[in-house]
């Protein structure tokens, strides 16, 4: 849309961003980078969001902050501290640790790290070619190295 920030429209020195309303499709400008609705639909969206929350709360599916819940992993009771909390603090911490630690540990134990420098502009070409072959860049380089080694062993 605009190549440089200086070209963007300003209102009293504040940058304006163009958006398209998700409800009515009207294009509007605002200084908010994440706006979804124009000024005409903003209140309608708020009413709909509040109505959905009230229905959820009425049906009993909403969990109140400060209420007691049972952790599905360990079975202990815990006090809810956020609206999206599903587990007690101990199980949440263990769950996060279990996801990231084995990957790093496995990579360190089974692979060596090699950095490859390529000429400017070649990186995207290599990635595109690897994708067209249905491979990752790593797999492409390993396959090319194997083929190169096979070709040079035959010449000896």
List the helices and strands and how they pair.
Elements: E1 10-11, E2 14-15, E3 17-20, E4 27-30, H1 42-59, E5 68-70, E6 77-79, H2 89-110, H3 122-132, H4 137-155
Antiparallel strand pairs: 1-2, 3-4, 5-6
Are there runs of 5+ residues with pLDDT below 50, and where? 1-5
H/E element sequence: EEEEHEEHHH
Largest sheet: 2 strands, antiparallel
What's the structural domain tally?
3
* Count of DSSP-assigned helices: 4
Structural class: alpha+beta
Q: Which shape, going by the Cα principal axes? A: flat
Task: State the end-to-end CA separation.
Answer: 59 Å
Q: How many strand elements?
A: 6
Helix content class:
40-55%
| Mean pLDDT across every amino acid position | 84
Rg calc: 27 Å
Proportion in β-strands:
5-15%
Record the strand order, biggest sheet: 1-2
Describe the fold and architecture.
The chain is of the alpha+beta class and 156 residues long. The chain folds into 3 domains: 1-44, no CATH class; 68-110, no CATH class; 122-155. It is built from 4 helices and 6 strands; from the N terminus they run ββββαββααα. It has helices at residues 42-59, 89-110, 122-132, 137-155, and strands spanning 10-11, 14-15, 17-20, 27-30, 68-70, 77-79. The strands form 3 sheets. The chain has a two-stranded antiparallel sheet with strand order 1-2. Strands 3-4 form a two-stranded antiparallel ribbon. A two-stranded antiparallel ribbon has the order 5-6. The termini are far apart.
């Amino acid at each position: 849309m605009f190549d440089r920030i200086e070209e963007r429209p300003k209102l009293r020195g504040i940058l304006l961003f163009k958006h398209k309303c998700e409800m009515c499709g009207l294009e509007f400008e605002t200084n908010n980078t994440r706006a979804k609705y124009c000024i005409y639909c903003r209140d309608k969206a708020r009413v709909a969001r509040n109505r959905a929350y009230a229905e959820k709360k009425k049906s009993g599916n909403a969990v109140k902050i400060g209420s007691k819940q049972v952790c599905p992993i360990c079975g202990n009771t815990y006090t809810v501290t956020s609206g999206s909390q599903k587990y007690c603090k101990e199980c949440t911490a263990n769950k996060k640790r279990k996801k990231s630690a084995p990957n790093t540990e496995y990579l360190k134990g089974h692979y060596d790290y090699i950095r490859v420098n390529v000429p400017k502009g070649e990186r995207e070409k290599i990635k595109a070619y690897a994708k067209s072959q249905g491979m990752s860049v790593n797999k492409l380089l390993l396959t090319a190295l194997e083929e190169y080694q096979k070709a040079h062993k035959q010449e000896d």
